[in-house]
Amino acid sequence: MFVPCGESVPDLTGFTLLMPAVSVGNVGQLAIDLIISTLNMSKIGYFYTDCLVPMVGNNPYATGEENSTELSINAEVYSLPSRRLVALQLRSIFIKYKTKPFCEKLLSWVKGSNCARVIVLSSSHSYQRNDLQLRSTPFRYLLTPSMQINVQNKMKSLNWEEMEKSPCIPEINDSEFCVRIPGGGITKALYDESCSKEIQMAVLLKFVSEGDNIPDALGLVEYLNEWLQIIKPHDPTVPSLRWKMPSSWRLLFGSGLPPALF
Amino acid sequence: MAATFFGEVVKAPCRAGTEEEEEEEEEGRRETPEDREVRRQLARKREVRLLRRQTKTSLEVSLLEKYPCSKFIIAIGNNAVAFLSSFVMNSGVWEEVGFAKLWNEWCRTTDTTHLSPAEAFCIFYHLKSNPSVILCQCSCYVAEDQQYQWLEKVFGSCTRKNTQVTILTCRHVTDYKTSESTGSLPAPFLKALKTQNFKDPACCSLLEQPNIVHDLPAAVLSYCQVWKIPAILYLCYTDVMKLDLITVEAFKPILSSRSLKSLVKNIPQSTEILKKLMTTNEVQSNIYT
């Protein structure tokens, strides 16, 4: 459930909700971190749920001493009212059997708060691509029917590739075709639920492998930016300079090495 | 999938934890009534129950609804438990008000009254002279699917802004991220994390990003942050996870904190009690054990 930081529940009517799926390479989550950090979004509340593994830490977006000691938990909501943007960040994995209840609670909150649309940032295993996908851009989009009406033309003008259908059961030759997002975590479940609940949802994903996924996250936010224009594109500046990496991205691959090793 | 240098293709672990998700989806589609029944029985087996000591009956409401509390102190893990036993519980009379009964792959809590050091337990006490002070000694591991249940049974759904919560626990020093090598860290050392509503100063420096905490301490602190309860977590990073004198003594700075100051009476005596605890737990090892 959504619990506000302050006394009252902020009005999110007409806002665009950006959220990650916990997926391969954690690309969606890294992308949301970049958005929250770059836009300096303010925390407006928590999405308190028993579906995610608990975790706490100090402010991951701290810029100095004065804001470094605010406690953060595993699911928090940030907003930028001037751009009518709200972001949900998920920082831990799902507890077993809790993905479906989470999707239900989340979408019920989305409907209840009157958000205009939801954009899910996600990723899928790059090793599962077919031959055509291997040769094309690694970015894909997916729209629910109610979203298609509004933005299909925009997607066409951007020359974006829609996520292809693939055999539902890959091993069987005459299997039916459906959208599959291997490694995408709850992406498919959220998408399916939103279709049936007529929620305007777009999924933006990138084919990735596990590793240093920061470049993938930068790629995904740039992809999102082509559509939403969150920040003004500046040619020919490098994406890594346009997006502000949060201070919590330090030591992503562990502590320093003992000098004796060398 | 990943290719190794030996020419094999192996399934690489996915740190986003998505392998299980796909299995789960498929399970959902193929689940039979028998599968559902097995799952239900497993959930029942893993249920966390809060029981009264004497009658072994379940509490009808959450612990803190039944016993209004101004100070809730919880030690999670054997070193933190030993610290509270020696330095806090040795002064004043502490009466058991209940215990948590749970089972998971790592431990099963015991409900015997005479506990051996090897047994796992989660026992709640209140101070007889001031029953609004409640202490929890939790040496068992509470699994991730049980942590929220534990919170429900202890804190319930009522928010308690008048309660101040103190959590003590240990982590291995290799969990601590720093730009130096962890081998050069002066283990054991203390770090703290506090909720927004906790206004007192901490007895040590705060845990810097990118360090995080999980498991039951994180579950308790998250609950307190969300429901605006003043709470502080004292985390001792140590290189000895089993019961260790130096690790336990690393918690000593918190004896001067507002929540514990009034409860601590005789430190030299506490140190003696602690030393005794260590010797009873020591297993004489030789090359045959």
From TrEMBL, chain A:
PANTHER family: PROTEASOME ASSEMBLY CHAPERONE 2. It is found in: Nucleus. Pfam families: PAC2. GO terms for cellular component: cytosol; nucleus; proteasome complex. GO terms for biological process: proteasome assembly. Chaperone protein which promotes assembly of the 20S proteasome as part of a heterodimer with PSMG1. The PSMG1-PSMG2 heterodimer binds to the PSMA5 and PSMA7 proteasome subunits, promotes assembly of the proteasome alpha subunits into the heteroheptameric alpha ring and prevents alpha ring dimerization. Belongs to the PSMG2 family. Forms a heterodimer with PSMG1. The PSMG1-PSMG2 heterodimer interacts directly with the PSMA5 and PSMA7 proteasome alpha subunits. Keywords: Chaperone, Nucleus, Phosphoprotein, Proteasome. This is Proteasome assembly chaperone 2. It comes from Carlito syrichta (Philippine tarsier).
UniProtKB/TrEMBL annotation, chain B:
GO terms for cellular component: cytosol; endoplasmic reticulum; Golgi apparatus; nucleoplasm; proteasome complex; protein folding chaperone complex. Keywords: Chaperone, Cytoplasm, Endoplasmic reticulum, Proteasome. Residues 27-37 have a biased composition (Basic and acidic residues). Residues 1-37 are annotated as: Disordered. It is found in: Cytoplasm. Pfam families: PAC1. GO terms for molecular function: molecular adaptor activity; proteasome binding. It comes from the Eukaryota. GO terms for biological process: cerebellar granule cell precursor proliferation; chaperone-mediated protein complex assembly; proteasome core complex assembly. Forms a heterodimer with PSMG2. The PSMG1-PSMG2 heterodimer interacts directly with the PSMA5 and PSMA7 proteasome alpha subunits. Forms a heterodimer with psmg2. Chaperone protein which promotes assembly of the 20S proteasome as part of a heterodimer with psmg2. Belongs to the PSMG1 family. This is Proteasome assembly chaperone 1.
